[in-house]
User: What shape does this take?
Amino acid sequence: MKIRAGAALVIALMALVATAAMAMASGEPQTSEVARAAQQETNPNTNLGYLFAIYAITWAGFFAYIFLISRRQRELEREIKQLRQMLEDRGRAA
Amino acid sequence: MRGTVPGRSIWLAANAALMAITLWMIFIWVPTEANLGVIQRALYFHVPIAIISLVAVVLVAIGSVTYLVTNRARWDWFAHASAETGVLVGALTLITGSIWARPIWNVWWTWDAKLTTTLILWFIFVGYLMLRAYAPAGGQGARLAAIVGIIGAIDAPIIYFAADLWRTAHPGRIAGPGAEGSMTSEMGWTLLVSMIAIVSAYSYMLVERYRVRRAEAAVEALSRDASLISARGASASRADVLAAGRV
Assistant: This one.
């Protein structure tokens, strides 16, 4: 439980830091070189990298979550089985 | 519990098939939008995920209100599962939106009303989960979390109407009541199929997370029973020893 809480806290802090960094980056004055590079990036034909990133991240997020909850489910099923077995054994012994 | 495994596998396979069809439609079937170019295809994932994150907060609120009224644990498990899946789809909404914003607005992030209220919603979800983790186990923690879940739901209509309430860089609604869209029929169909695929995937994750929460509750109950039996066994042994006059 504590590990999960810690992980949630770390994620929240990382998100805060990333948000702040992005906000700061957006406020930076652009040099002509940066502006030119940005212009190239806004060319509709050169945005495939961004599109790929969007789909890859979404898929990765879904798969990782499904994998984690499936693993947790298996662990819990095993734990329930062991506990039931233990209770049955004690019941028989009593 | 094992009996449900084939059903879950079929659902998972159906999700994968739906996703494959969606990807085919997005990358091959639907025409490229004239103004934004290929990056506009991000819409077919970003919009359904954003809608799902709003649905998730509404589900958290429904679960929380019903739990407070009925005091049945299953509604608390449902709210908890909705909040956790909400954190995932909320994070994906922010990430995909940010990546889309970079080539279109030339920034990764801007403090636009729609973006900021969505970020607030994500923090509400995270806060809910942190409260669940740190609050005392049992009814008290569940009730506190339910209150946070209900308060968090206030943010959903604010996000939905943000483009109407404030002047935002974010485009207006393209689906739902009062939507202002100019999509071709191919784009509309692609968005619809993508919406179905993502709703199905989200529902699968929600159901699985609910099952995990229910199993966690079962483990807690069985562990309590086991420790009670152990305690009884220990006192019985102590009584035996006392009766035998050896202590």
Notes: Residues 30 and 38 of chain A are 10 Å apart (CA to CA). DSSP finds three helices and no strands in chain A. The longest helix of chain A spans residues 48-93.
